[in-house]
Amino acid sequence: FQNNHHKLPNRVNFGVKWDGLNGKLLLTSAIFRTEKTNARTPGLPGEPATVLDGKQRVDGFEIGATGRLTEDWQVIASYTYLDSEVVESNTPAELGNRLGNVPDHSGSLWTLYTLPQGVEIGGGVRYVGTRYTNVANTRRIDDYWVADATLGYDFNPRTTLRLNVFNIFDERYIDQVGGGRVFLHRGLERL
Fold first, then answer.
1. Where are the beta strands (DSSP E) in 69-176?
2. In whole angstroms, what is the distance from residue 87 CA to residue 166 CA?
3. Are 187 and 173 in contact (CB under 8 A)?
4. Phi (first) and psi of residue 173, to 5 degrees
5. Neighbouring residues of 163: CB distance < 8 A, sequence distance ≥ 6
């Protein structure tokens, strides 16, 4: 690269949390902005193929809740919104586009219930919104939902045996992309 110095992104965030109802409910929230200068962008004529002259920005917020509905029943929920944008690029068509592999919406909902004798059962869903695989926004990955489950047993306060089942409905989805290419593979399969 012509411009070889890397700079860490600038981050600004503000968050709050509230722990109430005698420890039975924890609420969290944060808003943030991350700006990255020296982002990769195609070089102009006479420059190397890729230079570090771009600028990218992500604005977003996240909220979460963890609570005990009863002494034995716990619920955990979270949601994140990300508004990503190419702010500066040597390719004018990329300006204003979303960043690659950054979903606009994501979230999860999980519940755990403790049965007598230390047996714990639980399950939940995860959601990842639509994403593009490149900053040209020409290749899009669809959103997906995945459900997981768990079964555990506490032998004592320091030892737990746990069985996790991921993707219990054997959903087909694309989990990861990178390097401007899409690597197609199935997400985690159920046992």
1. 73-88, 105-114, 119-128, 131-132, 140-141, 144-156, 159-165
2. 38
3. yes
4. -155, 160
5. 150, 151, 152
Contacts 24+ apart (CB under 8 A), 82-87: 82/58, 82/106, 83/58, 83/59, 84/56, 84/57, 84/58, 85/56, 85/57, 85/58, 86/39, 86/54, 86/55, 86/56, 86/135, 87/35, 87/54, 87/55, 87/56, 87/57
2-26: pLDDT as tens digits? 444 556 678 899 999 999 999 899 9
At residue 163, does pLDDT exceed 80? Answer: yes
Name the one residue in this structure whose structure tokens are 């900053």: 135
Distance CA 158, CA 96 (A): 51
Tokens of 19: 């722990």
Q: For 93-123, what is each residue's pLDDT tens digit?
A: 999 999 999 999 999 999 999 998 889 999 9
Q: Is the pTM of this model over 0.90?
A: no
DSSP label at residue 93: G
- Helical residues (DSSP H) of the chain, grouped into ranges: none
